[in-house]
Amino acid sequence: MHKTGLEDSYVIRNNKKLRRGYTTGSCAAAAAKAASYMLLGGEAVPEVLLMTPKGIQLNLEILDVAKGENWVSCAVRKDGGDDPDATNGILVYARAEKRQEPGIGLDGGTGVGRVTKPGLEQPVGSAAINKVPREMICREAQAVCDHFGYEGGLDIVISIPEGERVAEKTFNPRLGIVGGISVLGTSGIVEPMSESALIESIRIEMNMRLAQGAEYLLITPGNYGETFLKEHMNLDLSSFMKCSNFVGETIDMAVDGGAKGILFVAHIGKFIKVAGGIMNTHSRSADARAELMAAAAAHAGGDYELVKQILDTITTEEAVGLLKEAGLLEPAMSWVTGRIHHYLNHRAYDRLKIGAVIFSNEYGYLGETPCAGELKDILRAGQET
């Protein structure tokens, strides 16, 4: 079995030992290095060494070599380690072709997406090959030219035959990247189950929305919110995006990006945590759903038995049902939305207008924070302020 250099490279996530992998950017750079070497040196290259920006050296196997008079093409297979990545196992190809002009030209071929909307790292019309992979690819190809004393230039084309199919499982269609996947990676190494990678994908989408002129963002944690938005709220969805569990980081990004406001539309099961100042709503970070729902019941005048029943609930839907039976749902949700309002604004330090609409899958609309109505009006007007 071919050894890549990552056999003993692991991270610990949730008490599990997970193997690191390498990015599409590393695959592209290694393939470009090998194709350039075979083109200029005329010798077969079964594997190449690649130093990643993270400082980890990879030894990557070269596959599917093809040659022409002035070009060579080859591939490297992506290995995402133990990360649940849709690109794992795909082949990333590089084709190196001689040209008279010195320097390295770089473009994307089949299966590499094209940027169609402003606000992403690469300009509209460019191949979706991000900055660090571009630098890696060009550096490796130029180093080969220097090694052989070659004074001409090379055109490198990166292709990913399975890219268009895989892209359907990624954020690319939402980002306006068409025709394939992006060539990514800031460190060259895949950190399995990395929160930072998901947060970065949220940042990329938000920056795109803002660059397209959206000043007010419509954000939900996930699929429940998206469904509720489409079925029950008449809002302009052009600035809609998801934030997963990263409420606090999303607010930080919006402030940093110059947004004027955010309207969150969220299921009570997620945003009851925000009522307790919890800004990462994943269960492994914090729970306290029953405790906060019980506090809301107590604040609304619920008796000891009701509070005790709510503390014993498994889901917030069950707790909402108990509050409704007791005739206390409205005052309890008023307290909850007041707390959410406080903590959202505390995170934003009043640097943008921020609000939330809270709902239940079973009971529908539950309430909203004080400025949510104003934000809904702005979004209905299609961002006109």
- Number of helices, counting only DSSP H or I runs of 4 residues or more: 13
Catalogue the unreliable spans. none
Please report the distance between the alpha carbons of the first and last residues.
Answer: 61 Å
Instruction: Tell me, rounded to a whole number, the average pLDDT.
Output: 90
- Assembly state (oligomeric): single chain
Give the class from helix and strand content and strand pairing: alpha/beta
> Number of DSSP strands?
20
What is the helical fraction, as a range of percent? 25-40%
Largest sheet: 5 strands, mixed
* Portion in strands: 15-25%
Which strands sit side by side, in order, in the main sheet? Answer: 6-7-8-12-9
Shape: elongated
Computed CA radius of gyration, to the nearest angstrom: 25 Å
Overview features:
385 residues
Model description:
The protein has helices at residues 24-41, 131-148, 163-167, 172-175, 195-211, 223-232, 247-257, 268-274, 289-299, 304-311, 316-325, 329-348, 372-380; strands at residues 10-13, 16-19, 21-22, 47-51, 57-61, 63-67, 71-77, 91-99, 103-108, 111-112, 114-115, 153-159, 177-178, 180-181, 189-190, 216-220, 240-242, 261-267, 353-360, 364-368. The protein has 13 helices and 20 strands. Helix content is 38%, strand content 24%. It has a 5-stranded mixed sheet, covered by helices on one side. A 5-stranded mixed sheet has the order 17-16-18-19-20, with helices on both faces. A two-stranded antiparallel sheet has the order 1-2. It is elongated and about 85 Å long. It is α/β, with parallel strands linked by helices.
